[in-house]
Amino acid sequence: MRRLEVIIRFFLALASTVVLFMGGISAPFAAIILLPLVAQPVLGFGLRYGTAWGIGVLLVAPLLFFVFAGEELALLYGVLALMAALLFGLLGRLRSIEFLVTGVAAALFVATGALLLYLFGSWTAMVDDFRESLNHQFMSALRIHEKLGFPSDGLDLFKERAPQLIDMTLRLLPALIFMSLVFVVLVNVLLLCRRFPERRAHWLAVENMREWKGPESLVWALIVCGFALFIPGMEFAQLLAINLLVILGACYFAQGLAVVAYFFHKNNVPRFLRGLTYILIVFQQIFTLLVAGLGLIDLWGDFRRLEKNNLTPSQAA
């Protein structure tokens, strides 16, 4: 009876991950919601019934895509399957959440880069295709704003600045891809902690994300990247530095968000006010920058007194 239950769950996990993946691919507007969840049915099934069964789903699903949907979809699913396989192997072994998430995301970043190179044939062709796609999206947005009756002066300025915006987006593309992968990995880790709360202490060293604090060494990375931006005649170093600065900014933003969430929880702020504040933080650039600055200052300020709380009574005295 136990084996029959596992087999049924196996096919349910397989069907769920396939449906989520196809839904995210066929409906781009829902991709940001569906694609991060593709690995969840497999992860939940494997952690409950055994890693070997979960790996079995990860092997069967891309094979189905290869046979019925083509090589490209099979390879795209393979990136998410790689994430699930790495989480199977690293959960409980790498308990620092920042190293767990960034390590898995780095492996996915390399796999994604190799996949894009394979699909496009060359970096030049890939960049040209991305440029054309971004230009098409910018022009579509411009037409929509014209139909909505936005002022012509603002639209003319937008049209004039569009090439510079596209170039900047392409320069920051590695950082944007990496942060997207970090987001996907983090979502899956947090969802697993909610589904298996009894295992959280075994998986992660931090008890709650409100108490997360980034490594202090990130400050030196910030300083080095800041100086690298002003090195003349080293375009590659500047490109690398600006991408690293974007990633570091996201780290400081995450720490600042943890500080905000900590004090919201500590002071029992109503959920409505919390939600309104988070919306402002995400959609208003000034609040986003303030939260990132708060995360940077918290490296020294320790507003939550985490280091003091971790001391033994004799050390605190």
What does this structure look like?
This protein is mainly alpha-helical and 317 residues long. The chain is built from 16 helices and no strands.
List the helices and strands and how they pair.
Blueprint: H1 2-26, H2 31-34, H3 40-49, H4 51-68, H5 71-90, H6 97-120, H7 123-147, H8 152-171, H9 173-195, H10 200-203, H11 218-228, H12 235-266, H13 271-283, H14 285-301, H15 306-309, H16 313-316
Strand content: under 5%
Number of helices: 16
- How much helix, percentage-wise, in residues? over 70%
Radius of gyration: 22 Å
Count the E strands.
0
Oligomeric assembly = single chain
Q: Return the string of H and E elements.
A: HHHHHHHHHHHHHHHH
Shape: globular
> What ranges have pLDDT less than 50 throughout 5 or more consecutive residues?
311-317
Largest sheet: none
The average pLDDT score comes to 87
Structural class of the helix and strand makeup?
mainly alpha
Distance between the termini: 59 Å
Summarize the structure.
With 317 residues, this protein is mainly α.
Highlighted features:
single chain, mainly alpha, 317 residues, disordered C terminus
